[in-house]
Amino acid sequence: MASATGIPQDHPTTIEAREDEPLLGRPGDVTQKPHEIIYRNLFTGTASVAQAGIWILAALVWQGILSQPLSLFTPHPLLGSSALLLQVQAALILQPTATPQQKRIGTRIHYSLQLLSVVLFVSAFVIIEVNKGSHSHSFSPHGILGLVTYTAIVLQAVVGIIQYFVPVTVLGSVDAGKRIYKYHRWSGYVLLLLEMATVVAATQTTYNVMVIHIPLWGVLVAVVLVLAGVGARIKKHKLGL
């Protein structure tokens, strides 16, 4: 039955629920709709918040680095920030997938982006090691976090490849590969936190403080936006919760 306004009277809670709905949706409720193009996953829900954060972060790094004369060190932060940008895209595009077909396509795009990001991360690592040359290695928080992060990135990539592409050969069965999916997701989100901590620590290095002056507050704002945007789209059931 409808009132004079045309609003059904037998479903009052529906309107109330919509009025109470957060502007960007509730945590973890963004799901790719059937037949919806997968690239919309990069912007649905709080993905727009994460996109703002990661592009601000990349812009801060690139502006700061390219404002100085080019050197052997120059590619290190440029490659690292580009790799991080790709990793955020890889997470955002896969999070809302629901159907088997969506998950299959999303996973292929996810791994393609992650593979490219790993290549960039490894290149950034090689460049900084070559740049150090025979000089004593720094044990700054950024240096220590960077080494731990690079190691974790490679391990995460290896596990991801094994569980999805060769689970039978390495793990014995496809089901064995599927059982570690949730741990791969957990470690992926932890790795994102570690990467962001490494970037924040970079603002406190002597080179940044004395030469390029990338602002800590700007980096912190960008990091918060990325973590909030990605974190709000986490589906607990995919983590085994």
UniProtKB/TrEMBL annotation:
Localization per record: Membrane
Residue intervals of the Cytochrome b561 domain: 40-236
Cofactor(s) listed in the protein's UniProt record: heme b
Chain intervals for the UniProt region annotation (Disordered): 1-29
Tagged with keyword Electron transport: yes
Entry keyword annotation includes Heme: yes
Lineage, broadest ranks: Eukaryota, Fungi, Dikarya, Ascomycota, Pezizomycotina
Topology of the protein relative to the lipid bilayer: Multi-pass membrane protein
Coiled coil: none
Keywords on record: Electron transport, Heme, Iron, Membrane, Metal-binding, Transmembrane, Transmembrane helix, Transport
InterPro entries with a match to the protein in the record: CYB561D1/2 (IPR045150), Cyt_b561/ferric_Rdtase_TM (IPR006593)
Recorded superkingdom: Eukaryota
Species for this entry: Penicillium nalgiovense
Ranges that cross the membrane: 109-128, 148-174, 186-204, 210-232
One Gene Ontology CC term in the entry: membrane
One Gene Ontology MF term: transmembrane monodehydroascorbate reductase activity
Protein name: Cytochrome b561 domain-containing protein
